[in-house]
């Protein structure tokens, strides 16, 4: 799908990848609803983008908030063509993650995608056109050392995006799944697991050690190119594909290698 002239919603767009996506979409001729839990950040981003962007604050894990985003887009610009389910949180560390941390990660990283698709996809099927972009993570293809809720919910986000593509891909609905490694956002500066600095440091070190840390703008450019080409899997870090192949080729060897990698990171942190 080409983005010029299209109407898009981007969640988690008050900063990071979401803000960069909103900027790139507007630059490419789209009109955008900038959505974020932090209403002030969303308003700031939308204000910088001018008349082709409007801001809506709220928790996009809430289906009523998603409905309000769609209504705002239709009121300001017309029917929604693209939805970027980009909002995400880290969750807790390991088995000591609380029920509340698990529930929040599932709600934001997975169910927010499900609820948005529930509201948009039937209309897209009727129109014969629409595009859903899920921001998951390389952790959804591999895993995330240091955070069980993040790893598990990002796997689930990939799984839901796959299901959407299989189920609706022949009915005019495009689906892409973004799976980057390190990106220079708040998650990589401590917000991945804010309640547990030790686990956060391990997780962040794992990401930074695995490959280059990209700018949000670099990721946004890759996303727009992939959407235009209709590619499902978006890998700003191309090496993730080889890692994923290695995992599938010999699962036991891959798990053993991940344990060695984790031990190395833990030793280096002492």
UniProtKB/TrEMBL annotation:
Keywords: Oxidoreductase. Pfam families: adh_short. The keyword Oxidoreductase applies. It comes from the Bacteria. Gene3D superfamilies: NAD(P)-binding Rossmann-like Domain. Belongs to the short-chain dehydrogenases/reductases (SDR) family. This is Short chain dehydrogenase/reductase.
């Amino acid at each position: 799908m080409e983005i010029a002239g299209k109407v898009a919603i981007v969640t988690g767009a008050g900063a990071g990848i979401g803000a960069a996506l909103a900027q790139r979409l507007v630059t490419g001729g789209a009109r955008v609803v900038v959505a974020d839990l932090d209403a002030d950040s969303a308003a700031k981003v939308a204000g910088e983008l001018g008349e082709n962007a409007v801001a809506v604050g709220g928790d996009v894990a809430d289906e009523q908030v998603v409905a309000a985003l769609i209504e705002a887009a239709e009121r300001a610009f017309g029917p929604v063509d693209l939805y970027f389910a980009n909002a995400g949180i880290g969750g807790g560390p390991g088995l000591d993650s609380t029920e509340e941390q698990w529930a929040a990660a599932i709600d934001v990283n997975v169910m927010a995608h499900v609820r948005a698709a529930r509201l948009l996809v039937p209309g897209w099927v009727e129109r014969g056109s629409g595009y859903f972009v899920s921001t998951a993570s390389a952790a959804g293809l591999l895993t995330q050392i240091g955070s069980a809720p993040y790893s598990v919910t990002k796997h689930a986000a990939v799984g839901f995006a796959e299901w959407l593509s299989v189920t609706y891909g022949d009915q005019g609905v495009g689906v892409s799944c973004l799976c980057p490694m390190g990106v220079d956002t708040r998650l990589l500066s401590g917000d991945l697991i804010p309640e547990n600095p030790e686990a956060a440091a391990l997780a962040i070190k794992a990401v930074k050690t695995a490959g280059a840390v990209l700018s949000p703008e670099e990721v946004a450019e890759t996303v727009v190119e992939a959407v235009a080409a209709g590619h499902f899997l978006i890998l700003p870090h191309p090496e993730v594909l080889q890692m994923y192949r290695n995992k599938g080729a010999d699962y036991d060897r891959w798990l053993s290698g991940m344990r060695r990698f984790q031990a190395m990171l833990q030793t280096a942190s002492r």
